[in-house]
Design a protein that fits this description.
With 313 residues, chain A is mainly alpha-helical. Helix content of chain A is 73%, strand content 1%.
Chain lengths: 313, 313
C-alpha cells in the first residue's frame, strides 16, 4: 500500500466513525475535499526514514492533517474566503458560528491523536502556537502600510514552513531519531516550506493560468504584501520608479497587473525571488544530506521535495 | 497559602511571561478579569483529597482555567455578547478575528499544560469535546421551536457540568486515585454542575436583582429555553393556560416578565426547579459519601459545594 492510499483510507475510516450533527459534519466535509496530504506524508516518510514503521505513525499523520484543516477552517472565516479547494468554505456552507465551533472541536480531535506520547504532544503544541503567531502576523501586515522583507519571511516561516518541520519531526520522534537528526529533519522541512511558499508567490504572479487554475497576478491585483510586492516596492523606490505605487493607488479592479509584472521583471525582482527559492531548496537538501542515515533511505524525501518544487500549481 | 491565592499567583505569573502582540494580549486580559476560579480550585482540592500535593496539580489547574476561558472567548463571539464579567468581551475590545485566533492559541496553551501526562490529556480531550457538543446543542436549540426537558438537561450537562467533573477527575488522576474513586468524584462534579446551572436559571428568574447584579427575568424576556420556560410551557399546555405563549408571541421588549414569573410560580414550576436543584445536590453528596476516603478529608469539597449552592449570584 502506498502512503497516499494508507492516509486516504485512514481519513475515510475516521470520517465514517464521527457522530452525527452539525459539530462533526463540517470536519468530514473539509477532510473529504481532494488534497495533496503533504503533511501526513511527511510524518510517515520521516518515520520510515529513521527505521520506524509507517503504521506506528498513522494516528499522528492524521492528527497533523486534522490540525492543518482546522487552521484552514478558521483562516477562511478570518479571510472571508468563499472557496477552499474549489468548494464552498465551511462558514459559507454552514455559518460562521458552526465553523468556529467545529474548528475548535477539530483541534481537540487533533490532540486526541497527537497526545498519546508526551514528547510528540509538546513538539506539536510549540509548532501549533507558531502557526497561530504566523496567522496573527499575516493579519497585522494587512493593516500596515509597510512590511519589511525579513518580516514577511518570518511570517511565512511561522504560518506555513514550521508545520512541515513539525510533521517531519513528529515522524522522526516516533521512530526514535537522535536529537541532532530530529533537528536536522526539522531544518529540512522549514527550508522546504519557505521555498514552497515563495514558489507559490511566484506562480501566482508569473505562472500559466491554464496550469495554475488561478487568475494571473491575483495577489498583486489585491495588493497582497508578498515577497514580490514588498521587494518590488523597495527596489523601485531606490530606483526612483513609481509604477508599482501608482498601480496600488488605484482601486483593486483597475490595477494593470501586466504592467506590474513587467516592472517586477524589469527590476530583477522576479529573478531575485527565483534565487531565493533555489537557496531555500539548496539549504533543505543540505540539511537532508547531513542526516546520519544511509543515503538510499533519503531518496523518497528527495523525490517528494522535487515534486513539490516542480509543481505548476 | 490558600488555593485561591496559589491559583491567582500562578495566573499572574503565567500572564506576565506571555509574548507581546495581539495573539496573547487578549488571553491575559480575559484571564485577568475577576473570577471565582471554581474549576482550578476543584483540580487542587481533588488532588489533595486523594493524598496528592496541590503543587503537583497547579499546571493542570491553570490548564483547565485556560480552557474554560477559551470557551468563554469563543462562546461570546457566537452569542454576540458585549460583556463578560462586567467588562468588554474580547471580540468587542479587539475584533472577531482576533478573538477567534487568540482563542485557538489559548486552547493550544491549555494543552501545553494538560499534555504532560497522557492519561490526563486523554481525559481532558474527551470532556473538551463534550463541552463543544454542549455549545452546539445550545445553538441548535435556539433555532428550534420546541426543546424537551431531557434535551435541555443533556445540553447543560455537556456545556457546563462535565467540565467540573473533568477538573475533579484530573486532580484525582494526578493524585493516583483508584478508577472507582475517579469515577465517583466525576459523578459528584456532574451532579454539582447540573444543580449549579439549574440554580443559575432560578436566580436569573427569581433572584434579587440587587444581589444578582442582573435584570430580573432576563432569560424569560429573551425567550431563552431554560428549565423554567421549557417546563412552564409543558405544564401550562396541559392545564390549557396560554399566558406564557401569549407573552412569547410579543416582541422581547414588550414581554411582561412579572406576569411570566407569576405563572411559573402558580403552575408549580418554580418549586419543581427547586426540587431538581436539591435532587442534584443530594446526588452529588451521595457520590462524595461513597468515596473510599476518610470522611474528614471530604470537608473542603463539602464546604465548596455548599458555598456554590448558597450563592446569590
Amino acid at each position: 500500500m502506498t502512503h497516499q492510499t494508507r492516509i486516504e483510507a485512514r481519513i475515510a475510516e475516521w470520517s465514517q466513525q464521527l457522530p452525527q450533527g452539525n459539530l462533526y459534519a463540517p470536519m468530514a466535509y473539509l477532510m473529504g475535499l481532494p488534497a495533496k496530504r503533504v503533511r501526513p506524508m511527511l510524518v510517515l516518510m520521516a518515520c520510515e526514514l529513521f527505521g520506524g514503521k509507517a503504521e506506528d505513525a498513522l494516528d499522528e499523520a492524521l492528527g497533523i492533517e486534522l490540525f492543518h484543516n482546522f487552521t484552514l477552517m478558521h483562516d477562511d472565516i478570518m479571510d472571508a474566503a468563499p472557496l477552499r479547494r474549489g468548494h464552498a468554505t465551511v462558514h459559507e456552507k454552514w455559518d460562521v458560528n458552526t465553523a468556529i465551533l467545529s474548528g475548535d472541536a477539530m483541534l481537540v480531535k487533533a490532540y486526541q491523536l497527537m497526545g498519546k506520547r508526551p514528547e510528540v504532544a509538546a513538539l506539536f503544541s510549540g509548532y501549533a502556537l507558531n502557526v497561530c503567531e504566523g496567522q496573527q502576523l499575516d493579519m497585522d501586515f494587512e493593516r500596515r502600510d509597510q512590511v519589511a522583507l525579513a518580516e514577511y519571511r518570518a511570517m511565512i516561516r511561522l504560518k506555513t514552513a514550521v508545520l512541515l518541520a513539525c510533521a517531519l519531526r513528529v515522524g522522526a520522534a516516533i521512530a526514535g531519531a537522535s536529537v541532532e537528526d530530529n533537528e536536522r529533519i526539522g531544518a529540512f522541512g522549514e527550508h522546504l516550506g519557505l521555498a514552497f511558499q515563495l514558489r507559490d508567490d511566484l506562480l501566482d504572479a508569473f505562472g500559466d493560468p491554464a496550469r495554475t487554475g488561478k487568475q494571473q497576478g491575483g495577489d498583486l491585483r489585491a495588493g497582497k504584501k508578498t515577497f514580490l510586492l514588498i521587494r518590488g516596492l523597495e527596489v523601485a523606490g531606490a530606483a526612483g520608479r513609481n509604477e508599482l505605487r501608482d498601480e496600488l493607488a488605484k482601486p483593486a479592479g483597475l490595477r494593470d497587473v501586466h504592467r506590474m509584472l513587467a516592472v517586477l521583471e524589469d527590476l530583477g525582482v522576479r529573478a531575485e525571488a527565483e534565487r531565493a527559492v533555489e537557496a531555500g531548496e539548496h539549504s533543505a537538501m543540505q540539511a537532508l544530506d547531513a542526516l546520519a542515515v544511509e543515503d538510499a533511505r533519503k531518496a523518497p524525501l528527495r523525490a517528494l521535495a522535487a515534486k513539490l518544487m516542480a509543481r505548476s500549481r
